[in-house]
């Protein structure tokens, strides 16, 4: 299976290739997987205190917050509430209920990538990339209903993810916005028990069909796992997912 790989915010495709290198090596060891890397198109400058943390420039995001000067919330003060959805809603409220631009444009560009390469049937997204991957799954379903376009993505791996955004409104989507889970394809959610943003990952997990969503805890923080045995175990889980959609 060929995976479209999406980096986190303030990063780029080259940095993601380095971050995912050991994971990709483990997954492709039996010849069942290959990868296509892309990145956001909105140039950004990391905050001075995070220079170098996101990898060498250029740095990009897939979407940009509208009126950033109005957003006072500091991600280092990320809250924890009684549920992942309550946490995300509280964080959104503290941030002034921001909306995001370029969501629809990002979706159009990514759908164009899919249309140009029918071998891509899976997604791997890290952090913002996981959020964008989830949004792309919903966008494929929207286009199926509106235009009859057959969805191409069969499964997804979300690493330290965030919930999807609505392409039309630019707002964050949560499970309680729907009568049932909106993402029904098989998914693997790679989370870290020590991740301060764990509720973001779990809010995304709650948007997925529990019968086809696997949860893998690497025990660390908001990072892509690199431990050899961890990657062996994770690769086995993902291979099972690939087989399930073959």
UniProtKB/TrEMBL annotation:
Q: Does the keyword Hydrolase apply?
A: yes
Output this protein's name: Serine hydrolase domain-containing protein
Which residue numbers delimit the Serine hydrolase domain? 2-231
**Cellular compartments per GO CC:** cytoplasm; nucleus
- The keyword Hydrolase appears for this protein: yes
Cited InterPro entries: AB_hydrolase_fold, FSH-like_dom, LovG
What keywords were assigned to this record?
A: Hydrolase
Database matches in SUPFAM superfamilies: alpha/beta-Hydrolases
Q: Which GO terms describe its molecular function?
A: hydrolase activity
Q: Name one GO biological process term.
A: antibiotic biosynthetic process
């Amino acid at each position: 299976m060929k995976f479209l790989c999406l980096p986190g915010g303030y990063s780029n495709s080259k940095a993601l290739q380095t971050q995912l290198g050991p994971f990709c090596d483990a997954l492709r060891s039996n010849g069942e997987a290959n990868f296509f890397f892309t990145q956001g198109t909105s140039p950004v400058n990391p905050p001075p205190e995070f220079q170098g943390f996101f990898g060498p420039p250029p740095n990009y995001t897939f979407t940009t917050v509208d009126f950033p000067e109005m957003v006072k919330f500091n991600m280092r003060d990320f809250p924890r509430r009684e549920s992942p959805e309550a946490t995300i809603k509280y964080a959104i409220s503290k941030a002034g209920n921001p909306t995001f631009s370029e969501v629809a444009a990002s979706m159009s560009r990514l759908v164009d990538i899919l249309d140009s390469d029918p071998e891509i049937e899976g997604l791997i997204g890290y952090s913002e990339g996981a959020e964008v991957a989830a949004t792309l799954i919903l966008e494929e379903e929207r286009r199926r209903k509106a235009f009859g376009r057959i969805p191409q993505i069969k499964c997804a791996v979300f690493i330290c993810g965030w919930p999807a955004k609505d392409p039309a409104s630019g707002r964050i989507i949560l499970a309680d916005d729907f009568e049932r889970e909106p993402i029904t394809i098989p998914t693997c959610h790679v989370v870290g028990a020590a991740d301060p943003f764990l509720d973001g990952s779990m809010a995304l997990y709650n948007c997925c069909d529990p019968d086809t969503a696997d949860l893998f805890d690497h025990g660390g923080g908001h990072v892509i796992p690199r431990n050899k045995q961890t990657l062996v175990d994770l690769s086995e889980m993902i291979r099972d997912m690939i087989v399930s959609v073959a």
